Each structure stands twice: as structure tokens, then as C-alpha cells.
Amino acid sequence: MHISSASHPFFTGEEKIIDTEGRVDRFKNRAAAAEARKQALANKAKKAAASKAKKAAGEN
After folding, report:
1. How far apart are CA 38 and CA 28, in angstroms?
2. pLDDT, tens digit (0-9, with 9 covering 90-100), for 2-58
3. Which of 17, 23, 27, 56 is the most exposed place for a label (fewest CB within 10 A)?
4. Given this model, what pLDDT does residue 1 score?
5. Phi and psi at residue 13, in whole multiples of 5°?
6. Distance CA 34, CA 27 (A)
7. What is the distance between the alpha carbons of residues 9 and 15, in angstroms, rounded to a whole number?
8. pLDDT for position 38
9. Which of 16-22's residues contact partners 24+ apart within 8 Å by CB, and which partners?
10. How far apart are CA 10 and CA 4, in angstroms?
């Protein structure tokens, strides 16, 4: 079988992207969950630092 630009789907515009198992959606969901965890940890660290600073200021 010979592949040429006249018959290859990439060149003819007949290319189809098939996501049969929802892989893209699962990837996007994992990325969103990771970002949410990252934000939650950052907020927790900010609160801990503020609490520590407040206690340190109260002791001096």
C-alpha cells in the first residue's frame, strides 16, 4: 500500500480523532483536581503562617 498526499487522511482532511475511553476528560479532571489540591495546600500554609506570626507577636 502506497501512502500519498492524495489519499492520506491527514492531507485530505478526513482525519478523525477518536476518544473512545474518555482519556482526555479523565486527564483534564486529574489536572483540575491537582490544581485544587495545590490551592488548598497553599491556603493551609498561609493560614498556618499567619497563625504562627500572630502567636509570635502576642508572646513578645
Report:
1. 15
2. 777 777 777 777 767 777 778 888 999 999 999 999 999 999 999 999 998 888 887
3. 17
4. 64
5. 85, 10
6. 11
7. 5
8. 97
9. none
10. 10
Given a contact cutoff of 8 angstroms between Cβ atoms, the answer to whether 11 and 5 are in contact is: yes
Q: Whole-prediction pTM value? A: 0.52
Distance from the Cα of residue 25 to its chain's centroid: 11
Q: What are the distances in angstroms from CA 34 to CA 21, 41, 49?
A: 21, 11, 22
Rounded to whole angstroms, the Cα distance separating 48 from 40 reads 12
Domain ranges of the chain: 9-59
Counting Cα atoms < 13 Å in the Cβ hemisphere of 38 gives 6
Neighbours of 13 (CB within 10 A): 6
